[in-house]
Specification:
- By secondary structure, the protein is α+β, with helices and mostly antiparallel strands.
- It has one domain.
- It is built from 1 helix and 8 strands.
- Strands 4-2-1-8 form a 4-stranded antiparallel β-sheet, with no helix packed on it. A 4-stranded antiparallel β-sheet has the order 3-5-6-7, with no helix packed on it.
- The longest helix has 19 residues.
């Protein structure tokens, strides 16, 4: 697993994160979480997913979110961890810098072959929309000016 898997998401206070996992054998899952800006580099919280697909449908809440250099100490070794998430090859699916059966997702059994993990985060602030009332008044003022000009 690469160092600092979340890049600078914690420093940017990214508020929305997601994970997509696809194993060669066809086991696939996606989970998306929003409202995580205050949860970076903490554990012990309980955050339900906004949406899930595939094997993440059986996931308990997210309870650990770290963006640290590779470490083997709990909980900093867990970029993402769930209260419970069983799937083939693992009794408890977590992203973990500690390797087990040549994996970084706590594989408790061999035979999972390989997989692709994609993480994303978003810290983009909402673009403020112009207030409707001033625009409406400006439009009406323009129409009145145009009408007076025609008279």
């Amino acid at each position: 697993m690469p160092e600092m898997v979340w890049a600078n998401s914690d420093a940017m206070l990214a508020d929305k994160i997601g994970i997509h996992v696809e194993f060669i054998g066809g086991v696939v899952g996606t989970a998306v979480y929003s409202g995580v800006a205050g949860l970076w580099n903490t554990s012990g919280f309980s955050k339900a997913a906004d949406s899930v697909t595939g094997f993440f449908a059986s996931a308990g809440d997210l309870h650990c979110l770290y963006n640290s250099a590779p470490t083997f100490a709990f909980p900093e070794a867990l970029p993402m961890a769930w209260l419970s998430l069983a799937k083939p090859w693992s009794n408890n699916f977590d992203l973990d810098y500690n390797e087990q059966n040549n994996s970084n997702f706590r594989a408790s059994l061999a035979g999972w072959e390989e997989g692709t993990f994609t993480l994303y985060s978003s810290s983009a602030a909402a673009v403020p929309l112009p207030a409707a009332a001033p625009m409406l008044l400006a439009g009406l003022g323009g129409l009145l000016a145009l009408r007076r000009h025609r008279v």
